[in-house]
Amino acid sequence: MAAKSLYICGSCGSEQRKWQGQCPDCHEWNCISEQAVEVGGFRNQKQNTIANALSPEPITEINSQDAPRRNTDIEELDRVLGGGLVRGSAVLIGGDPGIGKSTLLLQASAKLAEQHGTVLYITGEESVRQVHLRGERIDALHEDLQLTTSCELEAMLSTIAKYKPHTVIIDSIQTTVTKQLSSAPGTVSQVRDCAAALIASAKQFGHTLILVGHVTKDGSIAGPRVLEHMVDAVLYFEGDRGHNHRVLRAVKNRFGPAGEIGVFEMSDRGLTGIRDASRLFLAERAVDVPGSVVVACMEGTRPILVEIQALVAPTVYATPKRSTVGVDANRVAMLTAVLERRVGIPLGTQDIYVNVVGGVKLSEPASDLGVVLAILSAFQEKALPSDLVVFGEIGLTGEIRAVSAPEARAKEAANLGFSQLLLPQGNQTRVQEANIPAILRPSQQDNGWQAMPAKHLSQAVQLAF
């Protein structure tokens, strides 16, 4: 094996022969750095390759039954994982520093050790005493939870082979190094090769591997993007430090639905799962105030009601501002143009601010109708009904398009006491078939349940106000 210097992109992991300011593969700037790697010789092409041939089998004879999962006894975490941890799988968890990654994994480790046996927790950032003190505080101590500190890959693999735990947690993958490479910890080559070796060990021994990953300034997991392709599930912690709740989102999951979220509340006793997340996000909702509307969203398979607030004020700049928190700014600008052209609301001289209360980030287009009605309510200084819930996607011509899972959104609104639902006309039939009045409480039945379908934005504005 001979040492050689290569120029590797820190964003996509591509290798270049010389340094460049911009990566030719991912087109990122100032991301290429020189790293020393070990390079072996070429294999002999004339050697007999029949001995290394694989043994394929017919797809009709493969057992397709689901492998049993290990529950963590943390309902919100099991929901995001798709029902629990799968044996031989690799899970990558990322999030901002101090958001609760290590706390949640320590809680899950203690419960897994209590139910299933040995859990190996390897930390490269803290001492075992620090982790023990955190475990005492959150009541996450168990004799089958084995704790050690190390940054060397070879020592980790030897420990795994010796104790054969059913779950291995590496905190974090950026601190892990292998002696076969001379590059610094956290570099592309170190992260990629160490993760590949740990994942191969998980496939060989059948244990579940959980990797903790650092994040960059833009919120993505540090290191090459190939790391996210190597693992079976990628989970992201979201949340604002100004709020006590945290959101764990499944960005990728080979064994469950992608986009599923779990909601937790941070306290001095650790992270506690919140089953009724809608009540948490609407706990301090302002009633009968202009610029506020409740939207029914879907996060994975879970319906959640959130409040969208808008503020419209005359601009003092040549170009009006469009500032958003929790929703895409470009989409809000597009919806503002639709509202101005299709409904006739003059917003060209107004600054518009849109905020999703509670630090929630909305990405699905079903929140379009809520954003538009919140802006219109703030502009007209006219409050929407306090018992109104809306959802729907808006096109450039002003039409309101149908969205997925309207029955789940309607049931969630009814369970929380809302009696008016403004929805796309294309979802009316499915909501009627769900028979929402049958699940209403007596107090709600007295007020009545009203589903108001709308086909165009102008019609929705008339129904809402």
How would you sum up this structure, described in words?
The chain folds into three domains: about 40 residues; about 210 residues, Rossmann fold (3-Layer(aba) Sandwich), CATH 3.40.50; about 180 residues, Ribosomal Protein S5, domain 2 (2-Layer Sandwich), CATH 3.30.230.10. About 0% of the residues have low confidence. The strands form five sheets. It has a nine-stranded mixed sheet with strand order 8-7-9-10-6-11-12-13-14, with helices on both faces. The protein has a seven-stranded mixed sheet with strand order 17-18-16-15-19-22-23. The chain has a three-stranded antiparallel sheet with strand order 2-1-3, with no helix packed on it. It is about 30% helix and about 25% strand. The longest helix has 18 residues. It has 13 helices and 23 strands. A hairpin with a 7-residue loop joins β12 and β13. α4 runs parallel beside α5 and α8 packs across α9. The protein has about 475 residues and is α/β, with parallel strands linked by helices. It is globular and about 70 Å long.
